[in-house]
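User: Please fill in residues for this 383-position structure.
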């Protein structure tokens, strides 16, 4: 079997690594950058800290703090216009996945004309953007090492991925200290997003041995350390391990993409405004049960990495036990159910109707119908 192993962007990882932002970005030749973040990261003081490091290095900084969840096209285009008008030579994304995805989208538009949605067509050629530096403040998306920016086309209210040129960071600074202030609910949701990345990557139609190694290790780390990070957000051992696991997840999904769990989460986000990590966590047990008969050895790997004794289980038994363990992890870290989120059962039919049109859906390892997706959603609703 031939498979692809993509190169990872240059990463500086570890507690305190963000303090090198000014020095490292100066080394990249930047003199004026736009720093892209959201109101929450700005109010936490993290964005101001990064801006301070940049300015101390003699770099001029334009701060944009209006990014939104599920980055809408108009926000990316507004920010890109400011960046072009200011003639910046670098883009610095600081925050969770939405801020990093916004920064990637802006960087694409610094080398290419609007609209950003035109680049959802992956065959469309484009020129490179500017220097792109990504600094995550959550441990979940792995966006700092991926080549995709997930954006929302607001004209049709649908998520899609802009990928390739302009979306790959020049440098990523992964500093677990920046995740210490995350609320428990955000820690849980982003952590289960990372878990979903690696579990779906393992069971992807494009799964490969290299990604499998990273994914298996990430599952072990998340199972052990996510509950600790949720209960004690100041535990640096847990925070460091979760930052590592999230980054491993980003590495796996570049070449072994996620599938219908993420597709379900994308539609839950765009239609019902359920946060991405929560949507992934809700969908994942049902999806793993669905694919267990198609990729039993991969589901067994997930179970073993979670500490389950699955060696003597039949495929059918394993297809129940592993999803149930994921449900227990969801409950342990406080992921709400569809009922707790007050989702109306009747709305699930419209969600199911759009799932198979999502970019991730083709990578599910077995034939899946819209009727089956609705069944999975109804199963999740019963929990």
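Assistant: Residues filled in for all 383 positions:
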């Amino acid at each position: 079997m031939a498979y692809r192993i993509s190169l990872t962007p240059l990463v500086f990882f570890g507690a305190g690594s963000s303090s090198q932002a000014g020095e490292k970005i100066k080394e990249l030749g930047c003199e004026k950058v736009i720093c892209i973040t959201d109101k929450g990261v700005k109010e936490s003081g993290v964005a101001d800290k990064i801006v301070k490091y940049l300015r101390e290095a003699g770099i001029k900084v334009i701060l944009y703090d209006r990014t939104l969840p599920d980055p809408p096209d108009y926000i990316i285009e507004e920010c890109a216009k400011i960046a072009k008008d200011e003639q910046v030579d670098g883009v610095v994304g600081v925050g969770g996945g939405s801020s990093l995805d916004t920064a990637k989208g802006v960087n694409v538009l610094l080398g290419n004309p609007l609209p950003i949605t035109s680049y959802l067509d992956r065959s469309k050629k484009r020129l490179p953007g500017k220097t792109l530096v990504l600094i995550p403040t959550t441990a979940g998306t792995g966006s700092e090492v991926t080549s995709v920016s997930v954006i929302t086309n607001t004209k049709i209210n649908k998520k899609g991925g802009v990928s390739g040129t302009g979306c790959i960071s020049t440098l990523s600074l992964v500093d677990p200290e920046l995740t210490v202030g995350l609320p428990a609910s955000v820690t849980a949701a982003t952590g289960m997003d990372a878990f979903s990345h690696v579990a779906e990557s393992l069971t992807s139609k494009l799964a490969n041995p290299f990604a499998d190694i990273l994914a298996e290790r990430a599952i072990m780390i998340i199972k052990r350390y996510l509950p600790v990070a949720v209960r004690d957000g100041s535990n640096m051992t847990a925070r460091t391990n979760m930052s590592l696991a999230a980054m491993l997840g980003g590495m796996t999904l570049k070449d072994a993409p996620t599938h219908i769990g993420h597709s379900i989460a994308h539609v839950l986000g765009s239609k019902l405004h359920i946060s991405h990590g929560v949507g992934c966590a809700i969908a994942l047990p049902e999806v793993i049960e669905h694919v267990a008969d198609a990729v039993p050895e991969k589901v067994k790997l997930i179970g073993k990495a979670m500490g389950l004794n699955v060696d003597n289980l039949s495929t059918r038994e394993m297809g129940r036990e592993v999803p149930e363990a994921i449900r227990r992890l969801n409950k342990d870290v406080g992921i709400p159910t569809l009922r707790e989120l007050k989702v109306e059962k009747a709305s699930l039919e419209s969600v199911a109707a759009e799932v198979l049109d999502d970019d991730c859906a083709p990578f599910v390892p077995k034939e899946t119908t819209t009727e089956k997706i609705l069944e999975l959603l109804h199963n999740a609703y019963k929990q």
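For context: DSSP finds 14 helices and eight strands in the chain.
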